[in-house]
Amino acid sequence: MKTLKSFFKSEAGIIHYEIQGDGFPVLVVPGGPGSSHGKFPELAAHHKVVYFDPLGTGQSDRLVNQQSYTVELYAKTMLQLLDHLGIQTTHVLGVSFGGIPAAEFAASYPERVTSLILSNAQVDAQSWQLGNIDAFNHHIRHQYPEVWEKIMNLRAAGVLSNDPRYQDLLALPNKQMLWAGVDPIALPPSEEETFDEHTYLAFIGNDPEWTINGTLSGHTVLDRLAHLGLPTLILTGRRDLMSSPALAKRIVDALLPSKTTQVIFERSAHRPWAEEPDSYFNLLYTFMERLS
User: Fold this and answer.
1) For the packed helices 145-156 and 136-143, what is the interaxial angle rounded to 10 degrees?
2) In 10 A of CB 264, how many CB atoms?
3) Alpha-carbon distance 273 to 275, whole Å?
4) What single-letter DSSP state applies at residue 250?
5) Is the peptide bond prior to 30 cis by the omega test (within 30 degrees of 0)?
6) How far apart are CA 220 and CA 88, in angstroms?
7) Residue range of the domain that includes 263
8) Nearest in space to 21 (alpha carbons), one of 53, 52, 43
9) Number of C-beta neighbours around residue 47 at 10 A
10) Phi and psi dihedrals of 114, rounded to 5?
11) pLDDT digits 0-9 by tens, 49-101
């Protein structure tokens, strides 16, 4: 499959992007924060898929001031990328954290959005706190009490959760947050992402497993999305703890019922595109086909 790899200069810095496939465009907003783009070759079999490394990730520029990393900047950069490519309207697929800038883009520039797809995604600061922080800590406290005890000892000593000693304790619990099975599925090298911790901490803050005190703090979007009536597809896995069916329903309940669909993948956790790929991509094709 032909892949175009290139760069463009946004107002804030150089952005690396790739394009796969032909047809009606889909802009894929990667997770993180701090993650570069992976790829969905199955999607590129039917659509022109635009991937990009957000500022602070992958091959794109890093910003000198960490406070410059904001959801609003990411949405504005997405607009500039579409303008650079001459794309007037597109499906927008936000994956995990990518749902936050995807939703912000849809709320700010609805005329450029054919549909909004939130895949195992957060949309605002509250959903990140409830899923990635509170649900994760609940999981550790109840399923790994021996790990939780060590975490509490570190916190009693004033150690914040960005400390390597704290992060080392999270490896096993984190794996079970991402996958429905005991063992993770090996992703092809083309789908793997790189990660930049500095960008992650800019958004979430210096105590990221406990509270949000970075630039994401206080961010809201659902009230602005609600009245737009954009066709929206909300996807999650039955066993996803970070973007659980309940948190997905919170998004659904805030939007227009006639324009919003929620689908739960019964044998998946946070990555149904890897655990139930046939069902996942067939659903995307069907949803987008009737709108393109």
Assistant:
1) 120
2) 17
3) 6
4) H
5) no
6) 26
7) 3-289
8) 43
9) 23
10) -80, -45
11) 999 999 999 999 999 999 999 999 999 999 999 999 999 999 999 999 999 99
C-alpha distance across the termini of the chain, in Å: 22
- How far are the Cα atoms of 1, 14, 67, 75, 103 from residue 119, in angstroms, in the given order? 24, 27, 27, 17, 12
* Structure token pair of residue 11: 């107002």
Distance CA 105, CA 27 (A): 11
* CATH number for the domain that contains residue 98: 3.40.50.1820
Q: Is a pLDDT exceeding 80 seen at residue 168? A: yes
Return the exposure string of 182-221: e unless at least 16 CB atoms fall within 10 Å of the residue's CB, then b: eeeeeeeeeeebeebeebbbbbbbebbbbbbebbbeebeb
If you average pLDDT over residues 207-220, what whole number do you get? Answer: 98
Record the pTM. 0.96
Residue 234 token pair: 């909300």
Q: Where are the alpha helices (DSSP H) in the chain?
A: 41-44, 71-85, 99-108, 125-128, 136-143, 145-156, 164-168, 171-178, 197-204, 222-226, 245-254, 272-275, 277-289
Residues in the chain: 292
Q: What is the pLDDT of residues 170-202, one digit of tens each?
A: 988 887 778 887 677 766 555 557 899 999 999
Q: Is 37 helix (H, G, I), strand (E, B) or coil?
A: coil
Q: What is the domain count for the chain?
A: 1
